[in-house]
Amino acid sequence: MTKFIIRRLIQTIPVLLGVTILVFSLMHLIPGDPAQIIAGESAPERQVEQIRERLGLNDPLHVQYGKFLGNIVTGDLGQSVRSSRPVADEIGTRFWVTVELAVYSTIVSVFLGLIAGIISAVRHYTVLDVVIMIVALFGLSMPNFWLGLMLIQYFSIGNWMPDWMSFMQMRASGWGDSWKQVVLPVITLGTAGAAIIARMTRSSMLEVIGQDYIRTARAKGVKERIVIYRHALKNALIPVVTVVGLEFGALLGGTVLTETIFAINGMGRLTIDAIRTRDFPVVQGTVLVISLLFVFVNLLVDISYRFLNKRIELD
Amino acid sequence: MSTYKNILEVRNLQTSFFTDDGEVKAVDGVSFELPKGKTLGVVGESGSGKSITALSLLQLLSKPGKIKGGEILFKGKNLLDYTEKQMREIRGNDISMIFQEPMTSLNPVYTVGYQISESLMIHQNLNKREAKLKSIEMLKLVGIPSPEKRVDQYPFELSGGMRQRVMIAMALACNPDMLIADEPTTALDVTIQAQILDLIRELQAKLDMSVIMITHDLGVVAETCDYVAVMYAGQVVEFSDVRSLFKKPKHPYTVGLLKSLPRHDIEQEKLQPIKGTVPSPKEMPVGCRFSPRCPAATDLCRGRMPGLITDEQKNEIRCWIYSEEWDGDPEVNIYGEERIAEG
């Protein structure tokens, strides 16, 4: 197992390098001269030249990339054009907000999705199955900005839930009452995931339940509950884990709308604001951090595969 | 000590599948019996209902299959009256089953040791450690080399023959009174087939088990069985002891089966297949189900379904030829045009 993890870690190195190259080229692919953009359109040529020199834009590309890589390794992601604060600090305060949101939403979707999927599979072609699948279809097709607004409309404004404050305030005030502020955004974000996981779990479970080894387990006198949760579920989880990993990754980059609706100051909003103001060091930074996180999540998915099925080897 | 004569008596078992297109009678009034310690072969072509019969015995049918009627008397008690919980105590403990496909019948994500241990933990209340020791013992019993190492391996690390041995170890872990082997050798190489059959026979003697051997292979029947039930289209058409069956088959279908088998004890010019195919359950003939393919069929056969007729050796045949209503040639040539010289 340790060998597997080490091998898998080594394999992520080229991916990470690829990510840094892409992020690095962002600066050069954006139309126009970065220095000019930073300095402002009406800035004198001398000032632009200064900035260019400071950013090292006059160096050959490979030297620039080398520096860029070196800076990343030491945690230096450059400076925000807008706030002049280090990008690492800008991201640092918001990173955990988004991660927390994504983690809670993933937990909610996995929990709801698995339960719904298993029930649907075990009771397939019954009314319960049909109802669950219709609800899942709704959950899947609902745009989450709309769902978020509706939740606010009915729960917050209707006073079922206390008014939401900003996510940051909630974090500052610590847990306690603060779970109430997380509920709605997490439901908003988790619904689609729960629906996808429910559908995936159902089809995967149905396939596994028809397998010969499930019949073998029953022929041994194993209780039906254990047949389902031990013999079937472990086999059925493999495709589900992939979906969970992808969902989590999508949440990291996809919380923008939800963050906007619920006035949460997370990575999504940071990225959008940075794009709007052409604050490309921040854009680079957020893209880099989200990509790294995505790579890490995929690593976890692969490791859990291996844990679920010892046969899975790396080619 | 006990009042039952046969360990298993099946009476008029009916199993149907209720599909959107209506009821499909997969097993239609099957009866047979199995004395303790003996082996019963259930033979028939694909689709004859033999596997469904086996699954019905343990009530392992999945939807939309359902047992409609009949009795399954195991040690004198009707299993169809048992609750699901009582049935669970029977499965893997009193009656075990092994399946055709050793490659897919073991759970890929658990070690073979765990899978053998499971029934021991359920039925004999052993703890994990005791169950593992017993599992190693079972692996040794079924002839798997270095069982201490194998016990921690996953099914994909074993060959097909090994896996079938593991299946047997699993089935026999709790010392069952009866083993149902559903085509245990069909998916295996010929050399491995013989080994597995020998193993089952050897363990049967050692553990004093009764065995139901489900197969389409008359060679397997000749080698392992004491009694044979020949199934055709969901019914038993001939129930006989194995000697009489091979010496003097009575039902035209059995005769056909034997003729399509190469033999070295008699002279044969060429093998003769049975013409036609098994009728689909949706278009069952009104009369004898074999009549469309039977060389001796008359209007009587096509018009009415024959009942089971018991002959002087207490063997049973479902065929009009042996009834009093048969008014055709009593020496009707059920062996077809070229009668095989008896050896």
TrEMBL record, chain A:
> What GO terms describe the biological role, i.e. biological process, of this protein?
transmembrane transport
The record's InterPro entries line, in alphabetical order, gives:
BPD_transp_1_N, MetI-like, MetI-like_sf
The family database entries (CDD domains) matched by this protein are listed as: TM_PBP2 (cd06261)
Annotated membrane-spanning segments are 12-30, 101-122, 134-158, 178-198, 236-262, 282-301
Q: Which membrane topology describes this protein?
A: Multi-pass membrane protein
Q: Can you give the residue ranges of the ABC transmembrane type-1 domain?
A: 95-301
Q: Which UniProt keywords apply?
A: Cell membrane, Membrane, Transmembrane, Transmembrane helix, Transport
**Can you list the GO cellular component terms from the UniProt entry?**
plasma membrane
- Compartment annotation: Cell membrane
For the keyword Chloroplast, the answer is: no
A Pfam family of this chain: BPD_transp_1_N
> Per the similarity annotation, which family is this?
Belongs to the binding-protein-dependent transport system permease family.
Q: What is this protein called?
A: Peptide ABC transporter permease
Tell me the organism.
Jeotgalibacillus proteolyticus
Automatic annotation (TrEMBL), chain B:
* CC per GO annotation: plasma membrane
Pfam families assigned to the protein according to its UniProt record, in alphabetical order: ABC_tran, oligo_HPY
Keyword Membrane assigned to the entry: answer is yes
Q: How does it sit in the membrane?
A: Peripheral membrane protein
Q: List GO BP terms, alphabetically.
A: peptide transport
Looking up SUPFAM superfamilies in the UniProt record yields: P-loop containing nucleoside triphosphate hydrolases
Domain ABC transporter, by residue range, is 8-258
Has the keyword Iron been applied to this entry? no
UniProt keyword list: ATP-binding, Cell membrane, Membrane, Nucleotide-binding, Transport
Against PROSITE patterns, the record matches this protein to: ABC_TRANSPORTER_1, ABC_TRANSPORTER_2
Which InterPro entries does UniProt cross-reference here? AAA+_ATPase, ABC_Ni/Peptide_Import, ABC_transporter-like_ATP-bd, ABC_transporter-like_CS, Oligopep_ABC_C, P-loop_NTPase
Q: Which NCBIfam families match?
A: oligo_HPY (TIGR01727)
Q: What is this protein called?
A: Peptide ABC transporter ATP-binding protein
